[in-house]
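Hi everyone, sorry if this is the wrong subforum. Our group has a chain we'd like a structural model of before ordering constructs, and none of us has done structure prediction before. Sequence below.
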Amino acid sequence: MLGITTLAALPLGNMLFIIIAFLLLMLILKKVAYGPLTKVLDERADKISSDIDGAEVARQEAEELASQRQAELAETRQNATKVVNDAKASAQKQSDLIVSAANDRAASIIQQAQTDAQKLKEDAISGAKNDVAALSVAIASKLMQKELSLNDQQALIDAYISDLETK
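Answer:
Right subforum, don't worry. Here is the predicted structure as tokens:
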């Protein structure tokens, strides 16, 4: 009850003055303190909101870049595998060509060696026939000139053979 009696004791003019002063103080506080504070808080909220939006955009860009890098990496790996496979195929083809050329060359050398050996054999046989024929003619001519004993014949043949060996 003490509050009601104190309130009744205040004159109406004082009460109006206090209410008006309070309202004026509220308006001044709103203009001076609450307005700028609200403005700062709104700006901060806007900045935080824009930062969040920017972070979301940056995250999406980072995800896109990461997926793009993954695709490029996969493509690079695929290209590297293709290059290695192409190099292996080329090396195998070149190896086959070299082996084929070497085999052809070896076959040619073998064929030439066989031809040369056959020619040498034929030349040796021909030379031996010529030598035998010459020896036969020489022996026959000697025999015609004189009749030889067995020792003389052996000595004559040995002399002709040694003569052939020196030629």
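For your construct planning: The chain has a mean pLDDT of 83. The longest helix spans residues 12-145.
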